[in-house]
Amino acid sequence: MAQCFECGRQATNDHHVVPESRGGKRTVPLCDRCHRLAHGYSGDADSQPLGRPPAYSKSIRKRYLSLRAKGWTPSQIAHLFNAEEIPCLGKRWRYSSFEALERWHRGA
User: Fold this and answer.
1) Are 98 and 78 contacting, i.e. CB atoms less than 8 angstroms apart?
2) Percent of the chain at pLDDT above 70?
3) Cα(74)–Cα(80) distance, integer angstroms
4) Distance (Å, rounded) from C-alpha 81 to C-alpha 88?
5) Nearest-CA neighbor of 11 among 40, 47, 35?
6) Of residues 54 and 61, more confidently modeled
7) In 23-94, alpha helices (H)
8) Lowest-confidence range among 28-42, 49-63, 65-79?
9) Contact residues for 75 (Cβ-Cβ < 8 A; gap 6+)
10) Are 24 and 17 in contact (CB under 8 A)?
11) CA distance 108 to 98
């Protein structure tokens, strides 16, 4: 079985990077916990959907988009945000954190 794209644990899900409903074909392997986080739930198996956390402010999104425009990858940005101890939804920033940030910004 593949390793989780986010944390390296054993993957149990193939997560669509772009939802299938929007024509997404590419998937990444995720463990149950990271898959729940990618869909806006906490890492607990019996969790409820999370509301928009204060950490996902417009200033963080603006900085993220600015770094992406300069060619930074989501992984590099996550490493930077973690080093600067910028608060996030989970314990630390990862690729799925930015998917959640974009989803909340769109109001989905």
Assistant:
1) yes
2) 70
3) 10
4) 9
5) 35
6) 61
7) 32-38, 58-69, 74-83
8) 49-63
9) 95
10) yes
11) 14
As a residue count, the chain comes to 108
Residue 70: predicted pLDDT: 96
| 84, pLDDT greater than 60 | yes
Amino acid at 14: D
* Identity of the amino acid at 33: R
Q: How far apart are the first and last CA of the chain?
A: 31
| Sign of the alpha-carbon torsion through 72, 35, 88, 20 | positive
Does the pLDDT of residue 12 top 60, yes or no? yes
Q: Side chain identity at 73, as an amino acid letter? A: T
Does residue 55 surpass a pLDDT of 90? no
Rounded CA separation 68/66 (Å): 5
